[in-house]
Design brief:
It contains 5 helices and no strands. The longest helix is centred in the first third of the chain and has 25 residues. The protein has one domain. With 129 residues, it is mainly alpha-helical. Keywords: Cell membrane, Membrane, Transmembrane, Transmembrane helix.
Length: 129
């Protein structure tokens, strides 16, 4: 017998809420890079045509598409790849452990987005599967 705190029929709703929450949080990274809101000093004087500028565009536009549930699978796959690159190119070289190399958020986003690439958007998406 399986103990279920939340009935299985609500799984698509939980999946949709996770997608929306992850997208809103992810979009903050793009907004900080591109518009300075919220302000992160590291992104001052960021050039749009730079690696961080391109990341900001992916974060803002990709996050918006995920938020709306449009093209969820391909967008999530691209964003998962972006986060894998962020982890391996910017964090992993500093230390083996994500907690010590400050890469745990990139790693978590990578796998959350990989989940949506495989499982789809869940409930509350404009693209219904």
């Amino acid at each position: 017998m399986t103990l279920r705190i939340i009935p299985q029929r609500f799984a698509p709703h939980a999946q949709g809420l996770l997608r929306i929450a992850a997208a809103l949080l992810f979009m903050q990274h793009g907004a900080a890079k591109l518009f300075g809101v919220p302000h992160v000093a590291m992104f001052d004087n960021l050039k749009l045509f730079s690696l961080l500028g391109a990341a900001g565009i992916l974060e803002l536009v990709g996050g918006l598409l995920l938020l709306l549930g449009l093209f969820t699978r391909p967008v999530a796959f691209i964003l998962s790849g972006q986060m894998a690159v962020a982890y391996f190119f910017f964090h992993a070289g500093q230390d083996l452990w994500p907690l010590q190399n400050k890469g745990e958020l990139a790693a978590l986003y990578c796998f959350v987005f990989l989940f949506f690439a495989a499982a789809g958007p869940g409930a509350f998406a404009l693209d219904r599967e």
